[in-house]
Amino acid sequence: MDLKPGRPLDLRECVQLLDEARVRTLFLIGPLPEADLAVQHSSLMSPIVWDLGHIAHFEEVWLLEKTGTGPDGSEGLRGIYNPFDNPRASRDRLELPSVAEALEYMGRVRREVLARKDRLGPRDDDPLLKDGFVFRLVLQHEYQHDETILQTLQLKKGEPYPAPRALALPEPDAGWADRIGSMVRFPGGMVEIGSDDRSTVYDNERPRHSTEVEPFSIDAAPVTNGQYLEFMDAGGYSNPKLWSAEGWKWLQKSDVESPGYWRRRDGRWEVRSFDRWEDVDPIRPVCHVTYHEAEAFARFAGKRLPTEVEWEAAATWDPEQGEKRAYPWGEEPPDPTRANVDMMAFGTAPVGSFPGNVSPVGCYGMIGDVWEWTASDFQGYPGFESFPYPEYSQVFFGTEYKVLRGGSWASRPGAVRGTFRNWDFPVRRQIFSGFRCALGGGA
Description:
Blueprint: H1 11-29, H2 34-38, H3 48-65, H4 99-115, H5 133-154, E1 183-186, E2 189-193, E3 209-213, E4 216-219, H6 225-233, H7 245-254, E5 262-265, E6 268-273, E7 276-279, H8 291-300, H9 308-316, E8 317-318, E9 323-324, E10 371-377, E11 402-405, E12 422-424, E13 433-434, E14 438-440
Parallel strand pairs: 10-13
Antiparallel strand pairs: 1-4, 2-3, 4-14, 5-6, 6-7, 8-9, 10-11, 11-12
Helix pairs in contact: 1-5, 3-4, 3-5, 7-8
């Protein structure tokens, strides 16, 4: 179904999308016994049963309470499912429901939504209901928790998660192997950043605004495992000159020598994706690296990380036409034929596997595969207005978080676009994170 931002959704489509999202959530947890859903596999992540209950609670708040079709919505997110009152590291100490109770809650909320669906139809006089915004809010929330659940399952204790792989990746275009490590030039000038859409995009993506960008160069493809191995072989993890003070402090405390989920065996590097160990593929994007690791590699390469404005300009701006695209390839939303998204491959793809996933200036893979770290702190755009609640974006503005762009192989298509802004602490690498480098410009 077409989830392009700006396209209004009718009520029938909204219900279909809710059903499809729930099917995917249940599909992901289907192979797991109750014990694996109830335990906290890492202090970085929630017990999966908490995610399930939180998905249902968010739907209840926004489709029933806040729209006035259910109980009064003045309280908002509350109780054990309020993420601000209950940080991830402490969620295993909450009185969590059983898996059966969480699933019953999900089903009960959905039945109540469907029973009142005629009161939830798009209305121009209500910004929550206009063009189906509140449905897309709830949908994107579940999509994002699906990706969060996959991060948890990669961290899973005990037996690895038996990933139900259902998508064979295409063979890569051989021409892209020669372009790994090369850079393309963005000519600079006035570009338009962000969006004014109110049917889909989050408040932190608004408003659309013009800004001057200095000419810069940016990697034609995300940094690959092969490139990263060169950094490792050159002693990148033992050279403090390549690391910021904060990065070096993190490195000494963490005592790592490779990206997450790598191991050295019989003289070669292997990487684990859920239940599968494979030799490190030199032409796949490096994944599970922190901002600090990305920054150190960039210094090693004599480059830097791009700002998020540079990233979005390189991904979506057509300098020849002076026009902005919704996605690197054009206006059609992503799907697994255009980019490595929607999680069913359960891993990254070799560079060149999706030759149509190229931006106007020639950058490959800026949607899908790995979230790409940028040098930018997470801040509001000029003229930012919080909607529909400040706890989504505004409370995170500041210098603690770095912005990531582009989505990953685990991102649902409806939750990724050229303007989407993700953010996380620079020490995090349980996320499906990689990067590309830049050079020159005004950064």
